[in-house]
Amino acid sequence: MPHDATIAYEEDPNHMIIWLDLTIGDPKEHIHLKKSFSSQADPKNETPVKLFDREYDDILDVVGAAPVGFEGVEFLFAAFTNAELCIKCFEENQDKRIFFITSGSLGKAVVPIILDRFPHVFTDPVTDEPYSSIYIFCGVIANHLEWALRYRNYVQMFDFEADLLSRMVRDIGGYFLAEGKQLLDEDPPNYPAAQHRLTWSHELYQRYGRMEHCSIKTELNEVNELLENIEEEMASSSDEDD
Q1: Which of 67, 69, 86, 237 fits as disulfide partner to 80, beta carbons 3.0 to 4.6 Å?
Q2: What pTM does this model have?
Q3: Same domain, yes or no: 48 and 140
Q4: Do both 175 and 199 map to the same domain?
Q5: Which of 176, 136, 168, 164 is nearest to 152 (CA)?
Q6: Is 14 left (phi over 0), alpha (psi -120 to 50) or beta?
Q7: How far out from the chain centre does Cα 43 lie?
Q8: What is the sign of the dihedral through the CA atoms of 222, 224, 225 and 227?
Q9: Which top-rank group of organisms is this from (predicted)?
Q10: Are residues 209 and 117 located together in one domain of the fold?
């Protein structure tokens, strides 16, 4: 049975997007990708306010993260043109799950540093497997293959914004699915937190399907089943408390 997800909201998300690019403040650059971010922090709002280019002045090169909506899901967000400030942001947020977008030229300098200093940010603490959540956006992929291949377990490379965005949406949907399942494996299960993550996963998987005009029935069915089980368990627990 399809699950009609209502986007859940948490005041202190533990996940973050960091974006490093010299041209991020240019209104003519990255238009497609910027449209995915909204300045409305509460994703329950059905009509979020888009994060227009002029608002980047308030968050650009500020180490502290700002709450934003990313494709309808609550995220912390930081944007940089300065590599040193970007690295400092990693240092101050290394306890979070970070999805990192960078240009090829700045990535060549910064990726080796962050993977050397903060390898745990891009490593699954349960399986010890690397996260491939560094997204390199460059005009010509071939120009950056030599250095990027050394970090192939961590990076993905794109020369079209739409491809980067759709892949990132799917990856984050998968992250929330995995996190939701881990929360359900706790003793006792953390049903409210798991419901948050799985609801976000459901929304992002749906958006990915619309972006790519493809079916992701397997993933959505898994999320729906988990959400329905949570609802049943929470209802049962509520009945026992009455």
Answers
A1: 86
A2: 0.84
A3: yes
A4: yes
A5: 136
A6: alpha
A7: 14
A8: positive
A9: Eukaryota
A10: no
Q: For the chain, what is the largest distance between any 2 Cα atoms, rounded to a whole number of angstroms? A: 65
Count CB-CB contacts under 10 A for residue 179.
20
3-class secondary-structure state, position 143: helix
Tokens 């049943």 correspond to 232
Crossing angle of helices 161-184/217-241, nearest 10°?
30
pLDDT in tens, 185-232: 999 999 999 999 999 999 999 989 988 999 999 999 999 999 999 999
Are 92 and 116 members of one domain? yes
Q: 223 lies in which domain range?
A: 170-241
Report which secondary-structure segment, H or E, holds 73. Answer: strand 73-80
Indicate the number of domains in the chain: 2
Contacts of 28 (CB under 8 A, 6+ apart): none
Verify that 32 and 85 share a domain, yes or no.
yes
Q: What does the block give as tokens for 202?
A: 């459901």
User: Which whole-number Å values give the CA distances from 16 to 31, 49, 66, 100, 197, in the listed order?
Assistant: 20, 19, 9, 8, 14
Residue 50, C-beta contacts closer than 8 angstroms, at least 6 positions apart: 35, 37, 38, 39
pLDDT digits (tens, 9 = 90+) for 8-63: 445 567 889 999 999 876 666 776 677 777 654 343 444 444 444 445 566 676 66
Separation CA 99–CA 13 (nearest Å) = 13
| DSSP β-ladder status, 73-80 and 15-20 | parallel
The neighbour count for residue 211, using CB atoms within 10 Å, is: 16
* DSSP tag of 216: -
Is 68 part of a structural domain of the chain?
Answer: yes
